[in-house]
Automatic annotation (TrEMBL):
SUPFAM superfamilies: Glutathione synthetase ATP-binding domain-like, PreATP-grasp domain. GO terms for molecular function: ATP binding; ligase activity; metal ion binding. Residues 12-391 form the Glutathionylspermidine synthase pre-ATP-grasp-like domain. This is Glutathionylspermidine synthase family protein. Gene3D superfamilies: 3.30.1490.330. Keywords: ATP-binding, Ligase, Magnesium, Metal-binding, Nucleotide-binding.
Length: 392
């Protein structure tokens, strides 16, 4: 059973002071839980080790997909294949951050990979800042977390210049290159997350700017803000698969920009391979003995309780939990139903005394760097709650 610690919540006014405006869900309930998950140091280290190993497995699997031209199997849009290959070939296309979603890890349950949100993961603001603020508000030891997300991402921004080298070399190699940060206008969560990343990059030493996505200008010679200022790097909190499907001309332009070496896009196009849940099947093929993987197939798992997911999808949309006899136990509608499907062995999430389910999320920025939890029902959707943690 998940062990919990009651805490005094942060008031809405305090949350809004630090830029956190999505604190109340549509049913007027609070999005931030008034409890913390209690974990041990050993459990924290187990999450850390699992995620580092899983990332290495993803990197090996991506190489396998590219070498064997398995883009169709992963549901990758054809108009991004060249961009994916180009970004994979050159280390300057650096993966800044992603988030692994995991079952288990508490109360003796083994850690199992559910999926990897590699391109545009949410809950960064909550994990990096709010967990720290909750400990401070409750006069708890601010060091008693597995959470160095802010500093890890800051160091990873420096690796845009130093790549695999020591980030202390950043200053001597840095030559004033600029990063433009963009999100969709009107989405508080995405804008706050993007502006947080902008602040982290600024703290790392970059010159930065912000422009809403609809105001960014593109041509094959580069990427510009509305004032025609050109940027060497562009961070977009906008999924690659949405660019491919909804903005096909932009997908072509970005591919040409990369080919011409006119700008570097963050997160890189190859993170779409990681983002695709089809990679879960590839991982099972390549690493059949990994303790972290659940059996996954492109066909329904007959006689086995399993979860049906679209290869691209978020917040539990278009997910079904199917019993061993083929009957649907739970399902969630959504906009991703036209994507290719994968079928993953069902695993029971950790639960508390009220039978609420807990899913761990671990951010990765060059290494595993921060833990948090979501709680809800059998399918964690956009009404699930954010839960911080404390190491005891």
């Amino acid at each position: 059973m998940v062990r919990l610690k009651d805490i005094k919540p942060l008031k809405n006014e305090k949350l809004e002071e630090i830029g956190f405006r999505w604190h109340t869900d549509s049913d007027s309930s609070k999005y931030i839980s008034e409890t913390l998950v209690k974990i041990t140091q050993d459990e924290a280290e187990a999450y850390y080790n699992a995620v580092n190993e899983l990332y290495d497995m993803y990197a090996e699997a991506a190489e396998y997909v590219i070498e064997n031209n398995l883009f169709f199997e992963l549901g990758i849009p054809f108009n991004l294949i060249d961009a994916i290959k180009k970004s994979w070939e050159n280390d300057v296309h650096w993966h800044i951050y992603g988030r692994f979603d995991l079952a288990g890890g508490l109360d003796g349950k083994p850690i199992k990979l559910l999926e990897f949100n590699a391109d545009t993961p949410t809950s960064l603001f909550e994990t990096a800042l709010l967990q720290w603020a909750l400990l401070k508000e409750n006069s708890l030891d601010e060091e008693s977390q597995f959470n160095n997300v802010y500093d890890a991402i800051k160091e990873n921004f420096k690796r845009l210049i130093t790549l695999f080298d020591d980030t202390e070399l950043f200053d001597e190699r840095y030559d004033g290159w600029k990063i433009l940060f963009s999100s969709i206008h009107g989405n508080d969560e995405e804008e706050a997350t993007t502006r947080l990343l902008q602040q982290i990059a600024t703290d790392a030493g970059f010159n930065t700017g912000f422009e809403y996505l609809q105001n960014v200008k593109f041509d094959e010679d580069g990427i510009y803000d509305r004032d025609e200022n050109q940027y060497e790097y562009w961070f977009k909190l906008y999924p690659w698969e949405d660019i491919a499907i909804d903005e096909p001309e932009l997908a072509t332009t970005l591919s040409n920009i990369m080919q011409n070496q006119s700008a570097i896009i963050i997160n890189p196009a190859y993170t779409l391979l990681f983002q695709s849940k089809g990679m879960l099947k590839i991982l099972c093929d390549l690493f059949p003995d990994s303790p972290y993987l659940l059996k996954t197939s492109f066909e329904p798992l007959k006689g086995v309780k399993h979860v049906e997911k679209s290869v691209f999808g978020r917040e539990g949309a278009n997910v079904k939990i199917v019993d061993s006899d083929g009957s649907v136990l739970h399902e969630q509608d959504g906009p991703y139903g036209n994507y290719k499907k994968i079928y993953q062995e069902y695993v029971e999430l950790n639960s508390d005394e009220n039978k609420e389910k807990y899913q761990a999320g671990v951010f990765f920025a060059y290494e595993a760097c921060g833990l948090s939890f979501r709680k809800g029902g059998e399918i964690l959707n956009n009404m699930s709650k954010f839960v911080g943690h404390i190491i005891e």
